[in-house]
Specification:
Blueprint (H helix, E strand, L loop, with lengths): L1 H12 L6 H30 L17 E4 L2 E4 L4 H13 L8 H7 L16 E9 L4 E10 L12 E10 L10 E8 L10 E9 L8 E9 L7 E9 L9 E6 L7 E12 L4 E11 L8 E11 L2 E7 L3 E2 L3 E11 L2 H6 L1 E10 L6 E10 L4 H11 L5 E8 L1
Antiparallel strand pairs: 1-2, 3-4, 3-10, 4-7, 5-6, 5-8, 8-9, 11-12, 11-19, 12-16, 13-14, 13-15, 13-17, 17-18
């Protein structure tokens, strides 16, 4: 006790002599360090609370198939590493630059080109030449140049390329709306940062002389975007039934707002089961226009479910031999939260593959089914009115 009493007296005798300015400086530094530590603690608590679920940012379309998000509750489905890598690779391929083939270009336009595109300022013209060589039975298409193309608002520049399609009509009568098929398609080289690009690319296709009047050449001028969808700068069309192609014919056409072409129809069934939160999409039959001289090919349909412009799930049917009416009779099941099912968009994409070359796939067309459209909304309403019952309807395929 005597030791503690003496120690207490010794502490009282110790007096530190600091100036008032130094004392206030130490106090201010202590308060600042305390506030910084408090902010770091709040930030760590916020990160811990928001770790699950991961918030989705606008424009981030790389969403794994195993994740289904709903406000207030989140579900995670199990999937293998191979499936994750396949989904990740396919999603990335939609955003990479197009290759030299139109197959790669078509993959990047899967969802964007057939959706409700914003009609941008269409201006400018395209110059091209057409020639039919009767000796070799070949149609020669040359894309020469374009002038006065519109500049994109967000980039203030344009990187144009031209996508050329040969559309063959099933009927000769042009007055009636007939189904068409794509005989061939090509892509010109990319010209960077030019509103007056010069292409000079030439393409040819073997075509019988009696088939020439049924062909329409469709030129789509697009602006290449590496990280987003390719912008539409306009299109030009050249029906060959009204042209004399015995000698090279050079034309310049003003660009117009792109239009969709009907390339087939599909019989689809929809069934919604709210208790198990399942959406069943049945791909029953697909009818397309088949060219008589077409080589043997196979078809398959890829069904994607998107929500808020993000792809949540996708499945594909088995490959079937391409007939005028190809029968699939396959049902694809998607398990999603109720809110996403009621507001999602179903996209059915039909692809064609050479039976001998399985790596070369070509897009035939798309079908979009979602709430709010005219004809598609009718099918959607019938599905919601007849729960747990499959409802089948024919839908047109456009490209």
């Amino acid at each position: 006790m005597i030791f503690f009493a003496v120690l207490g007296l010794s502490f009282k005798e110790i007096q530190l002599s600091f100036s008032e300015e130094l004392e206030y400086s130490i106090l201010g530094t202590s308060v600042a360090l305390f506030l910084i530590a408090l902010c770091l603690l709040i930030w760590q608590i916020y990160r811990h609370c928001t770790r699950f679920p991961v918030s989705r940012r606008p424009g981030n379309v790389l969403l794994a198939d195993g994740l289904s998000a709903q406000r207030g509750s989140f579900q995670y489905a199990t999937q293998t590493n191979d499936a994750k890598m396949e989904v990740h690779y396919e999603e990335l391929s939609h955003r990479l630059s197009p290759g030299t083939s139109c197959t790669n270009l078509g993959s990047s336009l899967d969802l964007a080109s057939m959706a409700d595109l914003e009609e941008e300022n269409i201006q400018g013209s395209l110059r091209f030449s057409l020639f039919y060589d009767q000796l070799q039975s070949k149609l020669v298409v040359t894309v020469l140049d374009a002038q006065d193309l519109a500049v994109r608002d967000f980039s203030h520049s344009v990187d144009p390329f031209v996508w050329v399609r040969l559309l063959w009509a099933e009927r000769e009568d042009k007055e009636q709306s007939s189904m068409q098929c794509v005989l061939d398609e090509w892509q010109t080289r990319l010209v960077k940062k030019s509103c007056n690009p010069v292409f000079g690319d030439q393409f040819s296709c073997t075509l019988a002389e009696e088939e020439v009047p049924r062909v329409t050449v469709r030129f789509e001028v697009r602006d290449f975007d590496k990280y987003s969808r390719h912008g539409i700068l306009g299109e030009a069309r050249a029906p060959l039934n009204s042209l004399k192609l015995s000698y090279p014919l050079e034309l310049r056409e003003d660009l117009q707002v792109p239009k969709k072409d009907m390339v087939g129809e599909a019989l689809l069934s929809l069934k919604y089961m709210p208790t198990s939160q399942r959406l069943e999409v049945g791909v029953l039959k697909i009818r397309t226009a088949c060219h008589p001289n077409k080589t043997e090919k196979v078809l398959y349909a890829k069904t994607s479910v998107t929500y808020n412009h993000c792809k949540l799930r996708h499945q594909r049917t088995k490959q079937k031999k391409h007939w005028e009416v190809t029968v699939f009779n396959e049902v694809l099941t998607f398990v999603l939260p109720d809110q996403q099912i009621r507001e999602c968009t179903i996209i059915v994409s039909v692809y064609e593959i050479h039976s001998s070359k399985k790596s070369s796939k070509r897009l035939i067309g798309h079908i979009h089914i979602k709430k709010g459209k005219t004809f598609e909304n009718e099918h959607w309403k019938l599905m919601m009115q007849s729960l747990r019952q499959p409802i089948a309807k024919w839908h047109l395929i456009f490209i």
